[in-house]
Amino acid sequence: MVFNPFTLEQFLSEYEQSVDYNYSESGVHPVKLGELLAYAERDVNELADVLLNYPEVNGEHELRERIASLYPGATAENVLVTVGASEANLLAATTLLSPGDEIIAFRPTYLQFGGTARNMGVTVKTIDLVEENQWRINRDQLAAHVTSKTKVISVVNPNNPTGSILTEHEIEALIAAAERAGAWILADEVYAGTEHNQATITKTLYGRYDKVLAINSLSKAYGLPGLRCGWLVGPEDLIQALWRRHEYAVVSATMISNKLATIALDSTVRLKLIDRTRSLIQNGFGTLESYLHVHPGVFTYVPPKASALSFVRYNLPVNSTDFCNRLREEKNILMVPGDCFGMDYHLRISSALPTSYLETGFERLNELVAQLMG
Q1: Residues 241 and 277 placed together within one structural domain of the fold
Q2: DSSP string, 48-74
Q3: Angle at the Cα of 266 (from 78 to 276), degrees rounded to 5?
Q4: What is the number of helices (H) and of strands (E) in the chain?
Q5: Which terminus of the chain, N or C, has less C-beta within 10 A?
Q6: CATH number for the domain that contains residue 332
Q7: Number of domains the chain is built from
Q8: Other C-beta atoms lying within 10 Å of the C-beta of residue 203
């Protein structure tokens, strides 16, 4: 079987550590260990007593309890702790799918689950998010593409890269479509908590339908990507099946990540982390907007409702991969080309970063824009 590389992650892994200004990451400026412990009023010396043994393979019980408390009706037995959301997506694909199955994915969206499915010999049907309609779901495609053959409807909510959030009507339409097909809804919810202009956190789809498998992690809304701690929440029998594959894949996440994740998900600490994230997002997006207006008519965008990301359309005679390669080679800047999401003439730009870091890099972006315009 032909293997299709994960184009986005290949692009990031080859270049993200070698540029002066990296706007390709999908999260916020990371939290320091000391900062996390200060939020929790804990001393770093407490970590000296952590025994670097294996944790519980499915995740330390206290951590699973804290995760379960975020989901209506869930208990620790409904939770499996994974090595980031990336392992969670991989386990979901290998557990729920077989060669010849069909799934539904959206465009643009994070493509790991769909790419893994395609590499397994699964048919991936794509439904567009309509840019001219605030990145809402194309309802006609949803009705046409979901059939009795559909095994999984995969959704990222809030969305990566657009930052859109599903409306209640869209959620109802997805659930109705899944029920008709008897399909699972795989809900990647890693950006819940990154909302721009609302105090409430985007509600999970878990509990809305009996075949929802929810994914989350500490990487995006919490600013802790280096912990590589994610999780799956679903029916207990499915969690058991996922756990068996987790043992093959990695055995367990690390003891340190389990301990620090438990600290991060203390109810008080969690809200402090989310407040930090939202402050970075709001300040950074304002800075990005000001630089996107320097050359009128070049950049257009639907303001994201959540996430550290903006999916920006540009009006220049250059392919998005070529544009990003020139930014990297000539200006030492990394941004993600729309080609990675199957949508040319777009850039995915992360802006939840320190202001001075944004300003210098965005000035360089506009220098290249001026050259391309001239």
Answers
A1: no
A2: GG---S---TT--HHHHHHHHTTSTT-
A3: 115
A4: 12, 14
A5: C
A6: 3.90.1150.10
A7: 2
A8: 16
Confidence check: pLDDT of 217 > 80: yes
Instruction: Say how far residue 299 (Cα) sits from the centre of its chain.
Output: 24
Q: Write out pLDDT tens, residues 117-168.
A: 999 999 999 999 999 999 999 999 999 999 999 999 999 999 999 999 999 9
Q: Residue 79 sits in a domain of what CATH number? A: 3.40.640.10
Least Cα distance to 154 among 179, 180, 189 occurs for: 189
pLDDT score recorded for residue 1: 72
Out of 266, 281, 313, a domain closes at 266
Verify that 53 and 28 share a domain, yes or no: no
Backbone φ and ψ of 60, nearest 5°: -55, 140
Give pairs for 45-50: CB < 8 Å, separation 24+. Answer: 47/256, 47/259, 50/255, 50/256, 50/259
Examine residue 38 and state whether it is found in any structural domain, yes or no: no
Report the alpha-carbon distance of residue 189 to residue 274 in Å, rounded: 14
Indicate whether 178 and 245 sit together in one domain: yes
- The residue segments making up the domain with residue 219 are 44-266
Let me know whether 311 and 351 are in one domain: yes
Query: Taking Cα atoms as reference points, which of 227, 159, 228 lies closest to residue 190?
Result: 159
Buried b / exposed e across 257-286, counting CB within 10 Å, b at 16+? bbbbbbbbbeeebbebbbebbbebbebbbe
Which among 125, 121, 115 has a CA at the least distance from the CA of 183?
A: 125
Quote the tokens at residue 340. 């990675």
Torsion sign, CA atoms 107, 108, 113, 117? positive
Is residue 374 very low, low, confident or very high in pLDDT (cuts 50, 70, 90)? confident
Do 231 and 331 share a domain, yes or no? no
